Amino acid sequence: MKRLVAYARSQRSQGLTEFAIIAPVILLLTFGIIDFGRALYLYITLQQAANEGARVAVSATGAAHGGSPTENIAYLTVRYEGSLIGHVHVNWLAPAKVRRTILGGSKKMLIYDDMETSEKLKVYDKGFSIATDPTLQKEYQLMISYRSGDMHAPQLETREGLAVEVENVIRAVNGKEPLVADGVAGWRVVRILEAAQQSIKQGVAVPVSGGPAILPR
Fold first, then answer.
1. Which of 94, 51, 95 is nearest to 73 (CA)?
2. CA atoms 20, 25, 28, 33: torsion sign
3. Dihedral-angle region of residue 175 (phi above 0 means left; psi in -120 to 50 means alpha; beta otherwise)
4. 47 vs 53: CA distance, rounded Å
5. Sorting pLDDT into bands at 50, 70 and 90, what band is 14?
């Protein structure tokens, strides 16, 4: 009986010793797999952002007035794939503050004015369509039809934008909602700003991906 008890104790101690030796290896492999998965996810996310950024080119002009070491007036043109184009005008010397965004499309158009107190967003039921006339022989002769409808001003929350962003960060940290402006979005903005600064210095359109671009200014 004593031999059986001693044998059982020796087996138990041997198992504990083996577990103490193997456990760090198992934990190392487990955490290594987790870290590899996170790194792979980050790599795929950045690769997708880089692929999207490769489709963007920036053309910019600017001027520095009043002895400023950097430009205080600038015009940026951001070209995307297809016919999508974005134009940005910034002027730190303007006598009036203007924060207006205009989006134009073939079906509807909208204007967002951050300086408005009540009707910040206005959606216009306006659009256009362009079609060639099959009876015409020349390609430059087109039929353009315009559509003009009502204007709709939806009710928006009049909170400070920074307060909304901070609240979103807190809720994202607590796992309640995803980040609206995450690190990848900030990385894209920085890439466009770097390309704009390079375009101002070189006087040519600069692709965000860093490759050559032949685009009209």
1. 94
2. negative
3. left
4. 10
5. low
Q: 87 to each of 27, 149, 181, 184, how far by Cα in Å?
A: 53, 25, 21, 22
Tell me how far apart the alpha carbons of residues 56 and 177 are, in angstroms, rounded to a whole number: 29
88 SS3 class: strand
Question: Using one digit for the tens of pLDDT, what is the confidence trace for 182-193?
Answer: 888 888 888 888
pLDDT in the model for residue 208: 82
pLDDT value, residue 74: 92
Query: Does residue 174 surpass a pLDDT of 80?
Result: yes
How many other C-beta atoms can be found within 10 angstroms of the C-beta atom of residue 205? 19
Q: What is the DSSP letter of 143?
A: E
